[in-house]
Amino acid sequence: MTHPDPGVAPARKRRLSFLGAMPLTLLFIGLLIVPLVLTIVLSFRPYDYDLGVQAGWTLEQYIEIFTSNYTLTVFWRTLWISGLVTIICVLIGVPESYILSRMKAPWNSVFLLVILSPLLISLVVRAFGWSMLLNPMSPIGKLTQMMGLGSLLYTSSAVVIGLVHVMLPFMIIPVWTSLNKIDPQTIKAAYSLNASKWQTIKRVILPQATPGILSGSLIVFGLSTSAFAIPVLLGGGRSRMVSNSIYEQFMVDLNWPMGAALAILLLVMNLIIMMSYNQILERSYKRSLG
Amino acid sequence: MSFLQLHGLTKKFADTTAVDNLSLDVAKGEFVSLLGPSGCGKTTTLQMIAGFVDVTAGSIILDGKDITFAKPNERGLGIVFQTYALFPHMTVEKNVAFGLEMRKLSGSDIARRVKDALAMAQLEKFAQRYPRELSGGQRQRVALARALVIQPPVLLLDEPLSNLDANLREEMQFELRRIQQQAGTTTIMVTHDQAEALSVSDRVVVMREGKVIQIDEPYVMYENPATPFISRFVGKTNTFAVTLTTTEQGRQFDLDGHRITLTNESAIAPNTGTCEALMSVRPEKIEIGRQGQGRFAGSVKNSFFLGNLWMYEVQTAFGLLIVSVINNHQQVYKIGENVSLDWHENALKVLAAEPAGDL
Asked: Which residues of A touch B131 (CB under 8 A)?
């Protein structure tokens, strides 16, 4: 390969790379930045129940959110459900990925497919599946009632169960990827240094899988906070999450500025939590695992 | 009584025999290399000693104790892996301390021994670095320090230098030997690099297709290779076929119009009478001179300057020979130049009675 004249090349190259970056930049601006700015603007517009969105600026929506017990409860519920779903996904997903990574061909691909196959089924269908499983007339429903737990359907527990089921693949894939990247020789090295199986898992395997667990947790937490269908179908009216409130404001109350304010607050909450989580964990692994 | 004994060690995979009836006695403090081309079973042998591969038949006895079926984490052997296998999430210091922590030593003991091990490997400055922040040679030394800090009875090295570039590899060979001698640890190294095996080992075990072909000290192995395969694999050599006859003066053959008598140094010519044989002479043992100086005439086909050596390819009546000459103000010959070759009769080795035999 020959290089073009070095004097001309940089300018031309810059022009070309600029042109090459244009389509995605436009897409990004058109589909993310513009709607986001419009939503932020909308959240500061006054709203009148008779006249709709008005011109001018107000903090009315934000004040209402922060003073309403109901909205704060919804935010708090969103937060703890998402946190709990993330923790359960780590507890189930990490051992599952470890087992998957230790499987030999062809079973590893078979079981990876089994783990991923729920993603091929519509979310709504899966939610209905769970509502059939959990309703009071089903065997599981009868069992939980016998145990004195009552019917789980239309409770926060049902939402957690449903979300864990939906989110698990998003935890398993990154953890499995980072487990596969581990040099199997390091495991042998640990054994040769007298480490037991458990010590090897704890001191050598898990720390190396941490970047995967970290990104899996971020994906699961992020998707859970914005979950919509599962809380509606399994939580009923009693366990709604922020997305459901946003939907209600936009589509039922037609209070768009309120819906916009809720959406912006959810976004800000997510950003703060995810970025600080990332900071804390990533800092300790940046140097060693890159 | 030897320290580590391998008795009839055999490993069979589905339909192949990776290691076939291997027996080896290693003395305490000895450095033994398993040398052979890839697929000769040397790595499998090491893995069996380490406990990562099950033994099909035979036994491994360490210091009088049978460890054939012991788990890898119960053997307490020090292992340096080909990829070094450092723990990427731990600093150099933590990597070295790991084995001691697993042995539940006290904190002060661990600190002291880690410090000593890092000093021995000249790694004090890098104690707080992570493996990915180190060069290949430094990683290699960390792996060595980590394996030696537990004071293992036996150190196993799996191609420890193969991931280093040529200059560093040579430097690390001597480094490896220095550290091993300082620690006095019995060591078994697997390698496919004959130069590496010759330079650092007390004894070299040459393997091929799962079998041991020769076990000898490096110098003996080089001078008296048991088979044509070893003569080519360990160092370079020139071979040519001759017809041996037995006369009153001893075993003789004709070469390029000269009658040559074998000396006792030439190894045993297997049978008396007349037979075909393959002769070998090492490149550095051939003297090259101006036309007419030596017994055999030839012409330079090609020449290579290797820094410390000149390597010539010389065409003779009995084949193309490689000749190496030390770069010590000796006469330099040009390509196409007519030269003469000669050697001391002791330099000639009989490799096989039948030139077709290739083991």
From this structure: 288
A16-70: pLDDT as tens digits = 888 889 999 999 999 999 999 999 999 999 998 888 888 889 999 999 999 999 9
Coil, helix or strand at residue A52: strand
Contact A194 B103 (CB under 8 A): yes
Mutate to test the interface with A, among B77, B87, B96, B150 (most CBs of A within 10 A): B87
Burial class (CB in 10 A: 0-12, 13-18, 19+), A109: exposed
User: Which is higher by pLDDT, B106 or A12?
Assistant: B106
Cα–Cα distances (Å) from B109 to A196, B98, B112, B153, in that order, read 21, 13, 5, 19
Residue B175 makes CB contacts below 8 A (sequence gap 6+) with B141
Report residue B13 CA to chain centroid gap.
Answer: 26
| Mean pLDDT along residues B95-110 | 93
Are A247 and A267 in contact by the 8 Å Cβ rule? The answer is no
Nearest-by-Cβ selection for A186 from B51, B76, B85: B85
Side chain identity, residue A76: W
For chain A, strand residue ranges (E) read 47-48, 52-53
Q: Residue A64: how many CB atoms within 10 A of its CB? A: 13
- Interface check for A173 against chain B (CB to CB < 8 A): the answer is no
φ, ψ of residue A278 in degrees (nearest 5)? -60, -45
Structure-block tokens of residue B135? 């060069």
pLDDT per residue over B301-319, tens digit each? Answer: 999 999 889 999 999 998 8
Q: Using alpha carbons only, how large is chain A's radius of gyration in Å?
A: 24
What domains appear along chain A, each with residue ranges and CATH number? Answer: 68-288 (1.10.3720.10)
User: Do A176 and A101 meet the contact criterion of CB atoms below 8 Å apart?
Assistant: yes
pTM, to two decimals: 0.80
**Which residue from B minimizes the CA distance to A204?**
B87
Nearest to B208 by CA among B35, B30, B33, B24: B35
User: With an 8 Å Cβ cutoff, are B85 and A189 in contact?
Assistant: yes
CA distances from B196 to A8, B111, B139, B284 (A): 51, 33, 19, 19
Q: CB of B33 within 8 A of CB of B206?
A: no
- Enumerate the β-bridge partners of residue B261: B252
Burial B93-114 (b: 16+ CB within 10 A, else e): bbbbbbbbbbeebeeeebeebb
Q: How many whole angstroms separate alpha carbon B59 and alpha carbon B23? A: 9
Which residues of B are less than 8 Å from A285 in CB distance? Answer: 89
* HEC-encoded secondary structure of chain B: CCCEEEEEEEEEECCEEEEEEEEEEECCCCEEEEECCCCCCHHHHHHHHHCCCCCCEEEEEECCEECCCCCHHHHCCEEECCCCCCCCCCCHHHHHHHHHHHCCCCHHHHHHHHHHHHHHCCCHHHCCCCHHHCCHHHHHHHHHHHHHCCCCCEEEEECCCCCCCHHHHHHHHHHHHHHHHHHCCEEEEEECCHHHHHHHCCEEEEEECCEEEEEECHHHHHHCCCCHHHHHHCCCCEEEEEEEEEECCEEEEEECCEEEECCHHHCCCCCCCCEEEEEEECHHHEEEEECCCCCEEEEEEEEEECCCEEEEEEEECCEEEEEEEECCCCCCCCCCCEEEEEECHHHCEEEECCCCCCC
